[in-house]
Design brief:
The complex is a heterodimer. Chain A is mostly helical. Chain A is built from twelve helices and no strands. By secondary structure, chain B is mostly helical. Chain B is globular and about 70 Å long. Chain B has 14 helices and two strands; from the N terminus they run αββααααααααααααα. In chain B, α3 runs antiparallel to α9 and α11 packs antiparallel against α12. The chains are: A mainly alpha, B mainly alpha. Chain A: InterPro entries: Bact_Polyamine_Transport, MetI-like, MetI-like_sf. Chain A: One of its GO terms (biological process) is transmembrane transport.
């Protein structure tokens, strides 16, 4: 009796600790939104700092680049991850592929940026949308790869065997039997890659040359002149966009969970 | 027979080429950086050479201090992160219903996914002299005056590092904890061991692959940090990432390459040691579907 009371208190204390940690993790999501309304209100309207973003050509250009690169990363990372996962299955080389593909997780952002910049410079490739996309694809890839590996591992090979028995070749078996089953996972990897593209600042800042994404624009403005209400509005837009994408991811996951059983 | 040949060739092209391109894009930059780290700087450019001058410049004077501080900060921050991430992962693995595991882990994924430079800006705002934390402390009477050591201090840097890298570390630790065969724990109980001994002799050793993987991730992140040190440490607070950044700012690419290579080689050494100690496929058993 006494032990159960004690262990119950211990468990409550443990969950209290988890709640406290979560408060610390979520607290930074709030200040940018608060600061983005500085000087707003009255006859200027509530969203004056948000409106200012749209009239600033540099910000609009940066936003366009962020979106373009994000969509490219969302397209390319899952596709490459899918091919890599298939290669692991066909050639049975999980250790090699995992070992190389997970390296970007463990290289400091600035080091990966410098290395990629020097690599492109050596090949004579000028900084462009392509170099920005490449460095972000490499960053998103380990995550996309792990997600797709998980999804493929949960796919029962019996279905594939059944397809072969009914006379399908490898490609048909993949496109007509396996893909319909694993496509939620691939879509999830795509959304995740888009989120990680929005998350990326430092690597991009080294390889971008004269262009700016929203994220690197914030970073360079901070270093040159400091932050302003407009930039806080921009951060808030970025946070809200990320949260919406995460929400979409959660909804997809719940649906997949219902289909799982 | 010829059909098999074409199929093998087609597969080699469809799977092999993208994979080769990926390997080149990941390993190529790291290799070229290592080569360039031995080159010489000339004015605004560099020229091929084989000189250790960049490493000599890195391992002496102010930069050596930065290296030493980075090592210390990264090691101590990683210990703090593990002390927070492990209990959370343990709770999720042992005390949360199967149906709730994903939602709880999701709670830790959300802040990790929001742009971390933006989150660091937010911390500098919260911790400033007239920020939310100081206002609260003063108005609740906990502090008489705003605290100066909240921002531009070791405290702020550690807070920024821990909140940046710790959430992700919960996942590999949870992965290895949830992969432990429960019969081993039950066997330990049957042999009359209490919860603490069981944890020390069974659970902790078996969860080490995840713990070490998480530790390497946190350590390397903190070691090569740029944003947290600049924004929360204030001017003059440098970690290794800032040393690379300042070498870039004066266009000294070979030096930036040398410092980058040091961090990359350190990371590779840690990863190789990790894969020697543990079977990566055992660790990813859940993911690889075994």
């Amino acid at each position: 009796m006494q032990t159960t009371t004690l262990s119950r208190i211990g468990l409550w204390a443990a969950w209290g600790f988890v709640a406290l940690v979560l408060v610390f993790l979520y607290a930074p999501l709030i200040p940018p939104a608060v600061n983005s309304f500085e000087g707003a209100g009255g006859d200027k309207g509530l969203f004056v700092n948000y409106a200012a973003i749209l009239t600033d050509q540099r910000l609009v250009a940066a936003g366009r680049i962020s979106l373009t690169v994000g969509l490219l990363v969302a397209l390319i990372s899952p596709l490459l991850a899918l091919l890599a996962a298939e290669a692991v299955r066909v050639w049975r080389i999980p250790k090699l592929v995992l070992g190389v593909l997970l390296i970007p997780l463990f290289v400091p952002g600035i080091s990966m940026g410098v290395a990629t910049a020097l690599f492109f410079q050596t090949l004579g490739i000028q900084p462009s949308l392509l170099t920005i996309t490449a460095v972000q694809v490499i960053w998103a890839l380990p995550f996309a790869f792990l997600i797709i590996l998980t999804v493929m591992a949960n796919f029962d090979p019996v279905y594939r065997e059944a397809a072969y028995m009914s006379g399908a070749n490898r490609l048909q078996a993949f496109f007509e039997v396996e893909l319909p089953q694993i496509h939620p996972g691939i879509l999830g990897a795509a959304v995740f890659s888009l989120i990680l593209s929005f998350n990326e600042t430092i690597r991009t800042s080294v390889v971008q040359g004269g262009r700016n994404t929203v994220q690197t624009y914030l970073w360079s403005q901070y270093q040159q002149v400091g932050l302003s209400p407009n930039l806080y509005a921009l951060m808030t837009v970025l946070i809200v966009a990320t949260l919406l994408l995460i929400g979409a991811l959660a909804v997809m996951d719940m649906r997949a969970g219902r289909n799982r059983g | 027979m010829p059909r098999r040949w074409t199929e093998t060739l087609a597969r080699a092209a469809v799977l092999g080429l993208p994979l080769a391109a990926l390997f080149a894009l990941i390993l190529g930059p790291l290799a070229i950086t290592l080569v360039i780290s031995f080159w010489e700087k000339t004015g605004f450019s560099m020229r091929p050479a084989f000189s250790a001058a960049n490493y000599a410049a890195f391992f002496s004077g102010v930069r050596l201090e930065v290296l030493m501080r980075s090592l210390w900060v990264a090691v101590s921050a990683t210990v703090i992160m593990l002390l927070i991430a492990y209990p959370i992962a343990y709770l999720v693995a042992t005390r949360v219903r199967e149906a709730l595991v994903r939602p709880v882990l999701f709670l830790f994924a959300v802040p990790f996914l929001v742009n971390y430079v933006v989150r660091t800006f937010a911390w500098s705002d919260l911790l400033s002299r007239n920020g939310l934390v100081n206002s609260a402390l003063v108005s609740w009477g906990i502090a008489d005056a705003p605290l100066d050591w909240l921002l531009y201090s070791d405290f702020a840097v550690y807070l920024g590092l821990v909140t940046a890298y710790m959430p992700f570390m919960v996942f590999p630790i949870w992965l290895s904890l949830s992969g432990i065969d429960h019969r081993l724990v039950e066997a330990s109980w049957m042999l009359g061991e209490g919860p603490f001994t069981t944890f020390r002799k069974i659970v902790l050793p078996l969860s080490l692959p995840g713990v070490i993987a998480a530790a390497i991730f946190g350590f390397v992140g903190a070691f090569g940090e740029v944003a947290v040190s600049l924004i929360l440490g204030g001017t003059g607070y440098q970690l290794l990432g800032n040393a690379i950044q300042s070498a870039l700012n004066v266009l000294h690419y070979p030096l930036a390459a040398a410092i980058s290579s040091v961090s990359t080689l350190l990371m590779l050494a840690l990863l190789v040691a990790w894969s020697r100690m543990f079977d990566i496929r055992l660790f990813l058993g859940k993911i690889m579907g075994r």
